[in-house]
Design a protein that fits this description.
mainly alpha
Length: about 450
């Protein structure tokens, strides 16, 4: 079976667009399975290698910096190279690095693999957002982005279960290596499916995105100054919307990535749960992130179809999710028990639910330079949040507790939304400009 028809423009996305959203979900799932394998196994690895919290923080720091650099590289590449080929190449590359992580023999080699994984995994997002912008109508785009983002939850749900199945209760040295091998091989299957199911011509060549229901560039358009590198970058720097998104992505990325990376350790070392209990709860946690992600998209879609302005519906949904994310302060004060776990599940829904709205805000900036804009925003978001991983570990080592860090993290999305609302001009056009990138 091959997908057809998604490039037809209209007020509603066609069936092919929704099928492609499903493939993007699977790609995000694989992305997070490779990423989450380490955080689920790190209590075991740190014990085996006698590592500190700060050293684990260094691993996540290197991942984040490499992710930032890769975001720029692949963001610009996605505007120049057909994502039909770039996308599977990137996915195979990060899957190979995930496999190689199982071969590491010490802290230094783990750092190298973690850096390479972050670099290649970053290419997923510019490619994926170009695809959703191209095949989804504006009103359906938050839902399409929710499907894309929900793959993060699916991958994070499956990873602890796969690890538990392979590792069990064994205390044998190196028992943690097998999950890296198995999960690393899954990406090859996706790449084959992508090439077989997505025919040439279905997606824009070289990132020249046109989206369902959007005004797109005419092939006869005269090049404008804003299409040059200097003009594009200059336009971006004076666009208030861009700076609102800069603050937003820093805040939501910091909140999501740190909770994601430290939750297993918080449960085991901070609240006394066993490895098995922490793994099973981690799966449940990410089920609720998926619920929050899909619910955010469905809510924004329902509000827009009932007559609310699309931009307003996204802001309201983002605000509701931010309130749930702020419950980390409550979780930090609770002892082990059902109330703690229930509060963390609410946090789960909120911390991921903000992302589909953020992605849709970025898609209001540009048609022709979606990869570049995504890459720049991701670069800044990861560059700012990565050092916080090391700081988290250092504070945990100094205080012997994870509570202070957890209490503060949840308020970041609300702070990001406040800056966004202040900086985003009232009455700004919701549709991206065709030949002007910002």
């Amino acid at each position: 079976m091959q997908l057809t028809g998604s490039s037809t423009r209209g007020d509603r996305s066609t069936a092919g667009g929704w099928w492609i959203s499903g493939l993007l979900l699977l790609a995000t799932m694989i992305n997070y399975m490779d990423r989450q394998t380490l955080s689920n196994l790190i209590p075991r690895i740190t014990q085996e290698w006698n590592l500190s919290n700060e050293q684990y923080g260094d691993m996540e720091f290197v991942f984040g910096i490499a992710f930032a650099v890769g975001s720029l590289v692949f963001g610009f590449a996605a505007d120049k190279v057909s994502v039909r080929w770039l996308y599977p190449a990137i996915l195979v590359a990060w899957s190979a690095v995930g496999f190689a992580t199982g071969l590491t023999r010490g802290y230094e080699s783990m750092l190298v693999c973690r850096g390479l994984l972050g670099f290649f995994e970053s290419g997923h997002w510019p490619c994926a957002l170009i695809v959703t912008q191209a095949v989804m109508s504006k009103s359906d785009r938050v839902m399409g982005n929710s499907i894309l983002q929900s793959g993060a939850s699916a991958g994070a749900v499956l990873t602890p279960l796969v690890i538990r199945l392979m590792v069990g209760d064994t205390t044998e040295p190196d028992a943690w290596r097998m999950p890296f091998y198995v999960i690393g091989l899954i990406g090859l299957l996706w790449a084959v499916a992508w090439i077989r199911l997505v025919p040439p011509g279905l997606l824009p060549a070289g990132g020249a995105a046109g989206s369902s229901g959007d005004t797109t560039e005419s092939s006869q358009s005269t090049p404008r100054r804003e299409d040059s590198w200097v003009g594009w970058f200059g336009s971006l720097m004076v666009d208030r919307r861009f700076w609102g998104l800069i603050v937003m992505v820093i805040m939501i990325n910091t909140s999501w990535q740190l909770v994601r990376a430290w939750l297993p350790t918080f449960l085991q070392k901070g609240r006394g749960y066993s490895e098995a209990e922490a793994l099973y709860f981690n799966s449940l946690y990410f089920i609720f992130t998926d619920v929050g992600c899909i619910a955010a998209g469905a809510a924004a879609l329902a509000l827009a179809r009932r007559g609310m302005a699309v931009h307003t519906s996204r802001v309201l949904v983002f605000f509701a999710c931010s309130l749930l994310a702020a419950l980390t302060t409550v979780a930090a004060m609770l002892p082990a028990g059902w109330l703690l776990l229930g509060t963390l599940l609410a946090v789960a829904a909120g911390t991921l639910g903000v992302f589909p709205c953020y992605y849709s805000f970025t898609q209001e900036l540009t048609v022709s330079h979606m990869g570049r804009v995504t890459g720049v925003l991701s670069f800044v978001g990861w560059l700012a949040s990565a050092p916080v991983q090391k700081l988290f570990g250092r504070i945990a080592d100094a205080t012997g507790s994870y509570d202070i860090n957890m209490a503060i993290l949840g308020w970041a999305p609300l702070a990001g939304l406040l800056a966004f609302v202040i900086l985003w001009p009232r009455g700004a056009a919701a549709e991206p400009q065709a030949t002007v990138s910002t």
